[in-house]
Input
Amino acid sequence: MAQNITLLGASYSDVPAVALPKTGGGTAKFIDITDTTATASDVAQGKYFYTADGTKAEGTATGGGGGSDEWQRPAEFPDLSLLDRTGEVVYMSCMADEARGYFYINLKTSNSQPYNVAIGTITDGEYVVEREFTLAHNKEQRQYFGRPGGGYKVIRVTPPTGGHITTFSTSTAYENAYWATDVVSGEQVPALAEWQGVVEIYGNLPYMNGALSCRSNKLLRSFDVQHVAPSSLDYGFRYCQSLENVDMSTWDTSNTTTFNNCFANTGLVRYLPGINDLDLSNCTFLGMAFANVSIDEVDMSKWNLAKLTNMTSIFSGSRIKKIKAKNSDVACSYANAFSNCYYLQEIDISDLDLSMATSVDALFSNDMVLSSLDFASLDFSSLSTAASTQNVVQGTKSLRSLTVPASLTIIGNGAFSNMESCSEYHFLATTPPTLNNTNVFNNMNTRVTKKIYVPYSADHSVLTAYQSATNWSTYASYIEEEPQT
Output
């Protein structure tokens, strides 16, 4: 907030900030903050802000950012509970105060009979029908909206007697339009990727049992649809770059077989209610399922993964801070599963059974702030190729030590490279593991003095074996026996 100030005898009006020279050079900028209105609950936990009186304070909010842990519906969306919900209907509403244009609508009904459509407006808490007409099953129709003159345009679809809506698709030529939908019936989720300007979807889908996909809907912000039972979530929300909320708390995923790329390339998803309670008993593929999401934490301990064959990149690139990991003792690829989680501070791997893993390539790669990892507890005995173990913890720049279990018998390219803070590598195997090449410990010459510790033997034969083994000899000067107490 601008203030009137006096500086060196001169008066100045409406000054928002002042830059003053510092003794050691440079400038220091002072800004008036008396108009600050934020409180601790508005600011994310662990982040700091300044109150109106200049006091530095820490935020207390959780849930991936400031405010509530739950998705808050933006004020611009209408209250569709005002509408008559008699029978099975599909509602779609549009806020377009200055817009004019047209939309296409195409519905299919379970008994191939025509359905009724009503178009009206919600204004000041009241729904007024403007016109009604009948459309044929599976025939695209073009309809016009004039200037609404304020309020929300609503399309209400009533299925034929004895039938229900099975598919619902639309596109629009509206400009500056915001769409919300409340889907109350349908065997398949509408073709939402084709909708232009849809920003929220909510309601119920009691008949939905097919594939669910909103792929590439770049304006979609929230998907809050209850009681769905998708057979597949492949590419479900991929490229939904504005998406923040998907409520899965009432979903039946017991027959969902794949989550391939479900949230890949999203980036803003902060709210996933129900993720910890998913029934994955028939799921075989979780590759990139939750890649790029921005939720704070996830607990996999309740997940039934008995049929899983692929967990590749499941959380890769996400902003998750805390993970409780789990899997089942089945043959499965875990390549990149937790890689590039730049905000990951804690991961519990006590229930992570890798005894039948087919790959751990880049498993924890580039988890830059992770400072603790119980790597020694993992069982790598099923891995027999260098490609399956390469880059496994490379780029974990905050780990200060690493204990490598004896079960890791072959070590791939770059497995322990770019670990800038790691000063100690402790190998438990008395026989040197096979090193794929001399890049396994790439970037050993850093500001941190590094040592490779191997098991002590009275005749020093283990030390000698490591120092002379193929590719290990490159690192002979770093290799020492474990200190004896």
